[in-house]
Specification:
This protein is mainly alpha-helical and 163 residues long. The protein contains six helices and six strands, in the order H-E-E-H-E-E-H-E-E-H-H-H. It is 43% helix and 9% strand.
């Protein structure tokens, strides 16, 4: 089942069975401290940049999973409109800045190597969160704190994590 089908099923369940509205939402990259896939994505095996295919210049927005959940609950309680609402931080960082943050958090002492021969992909991915902010919600977990939480969880649970 596709992610969009799952979200539509959840929306219908909320509306039909529980008599609550789940407006249309959209987000960019969400990561967490309890998901090994997020840890692998964010932490790149404790060697950030060792296998990067990018120049580090593309801009991305990252949202910690607790903020995503909080925003969804906020919208369930405060929004029933037909239009979609973007969920995000409204802040973007370069992939290079992300790699440097991860490097600091995990204590990696090596060099980050960028392969400038590979394409970067989309240069910028940032959601416009003005509507969500206008409703009164903003994220709480900044990128560095979220990376630290994900790394701490990963280190404590690496033996039991499915990889």
């Amino acid at each position: 089942m596709k992610k969009s089908e799952i979200l539509n099923k959840l929306k219908n369940e909320c509306q039909n069975c529980h008599k609550c509205e789940l407006g249309n939402t959209r987000t960019n990259i969400v990561f967490s401290d309890g998901n090994p896939d997020s840890a692998k994505y964010i932490l790149v095996g404790e060697a950030p940049g060792a296998n990067e295919d990018l120049t580090g210049t593309p801009l991305r927005e990252f949202l910690y999973v607790d903020d995503m959940a909080d925003a969804c609950v906020f919208l369930l309680e405060n929004y029933s409109g037909e239009q979609h609402v973007n969920i995000g931080t409204g802040k973007e960082v370069t992939i290079k800045e992300l790699a440097e943050t991860v490097k600091e958090v995990v204590g990696y002492q090596g060099e980050i190597i960028w392969n400038k021969d590979m394409p970067d992909g989309t240069p910028r991915k940032l959601t416009n969160v003005d509507k969500l902010h206008g409703l009164g919600w903003t994220h709480k977990v900044e990128l560095r704190e979220g990376v630290q939480l994900a790394y701490d969880w990963f280190r404590e649970n690496v033996q039991n994590a499915r990889m």
